[in-house]
Amino acid sequence: MDESVLIAVLMGGPGSEREVSLSSGQAVLEALQGEGMNALGVDVTDRTPTLPEGTGLAFNVIHGTYGEDGGLQEYLEALGVPYTGAGRVSSDLAFDKVASKKCFVEAGVPTPVSEIIDVSNGIPLPTMEFPYVVKPPKEGSSVGVHIVRTADEAQAAMEDAAKYGDEVLVEQFVEGKELTVGIVGEEVFPIVQIVPRSGFYDMANKYPWMSEDGGTDYHCPANLDVTTAKMVSDSALAAHNALGIEVYSRVDILLDSYGHPYILEANTIPGMTASSLLPKAAAAAEPSYGFGALCCRIGELSLALRETNAST
Known about the structure:
Low-confidence stretches: none
Structural class: alpha+beta
CATH class of the largest domain: Alpha Beta
CATH topology of the largest domain: D-amino Acid Aminotransferase, Chain A, domain 1
CATH superfamily of the largest domain: ATP-grasp fold, B domain
Helix content: 25-40%
Strand content: 15-25%
Radius of gyration: 19 Å
Number of helices: 10
Distance between the termini: 22 Å
Largest sheet: 6 strands, antiparallel
CATH architecture of the largest domain: 2-Layer Sandwich
Oligomer: single chain
Order of helices and strands: EHEEHHHEEEHEEEEHHEHEEHH
């Protein structure tokens, strides 16, 4: 990537994942500067951030609300500033778990059976048999997510998830291996297996530095036979393509005991610290990418895409 391009690394944001985003953003900023790029950090606190004069690329590292739902993309397009990652439409689609699940079903992408509960006028309980997973459709980093195994747990789980919107997504609970697949450009990276030390992959296990609790072990490449690994990778790429995601994503998958993959979601702004899952997968790829090289690759692909779009 051209070292003369001024890169504004946008981090923070107004959503519930602000602290995680600040950590990712600082890591990306340092990685780009380490590669000799002209990069500056911008702490975004509202929906109309001021960018440094002459910004040639906005590197979006705002997880969740605003950064991942199409809001920031629309704002940057209005400013005429190129940005990294998925566009406005695909960002909005991927962020909405209800809408993305409909796309998966229509495209034949395997995904858990689900039920959508309207909680705008009261909080009814799901009709699905236990166990199931309750989650807000438009939050990330496992915010508001609960595994429900008994009737006693159901009401509290639904009430918590209902805090985040008028709908709650309830999914069949799939017991199995937690996997994630990174995709950058046309390249599908090695599969990462996620092994929480206790419970499931919630905020505490994802970010133990935030709560001084929990923790997770990661294996990359995942310990899968060749046939199963190809099935998982193909399913991840199919999910990525079904949503029309540009540049890069990280697709979360559950693999049941019969070797069947189930797509959960595609993250268009995945964690981007040096120890995050996408960088882990990039480091295990052939050829491998260091963290700085990965950030530069995302920047290069994004600039090329936005320049092509601007000329058509």
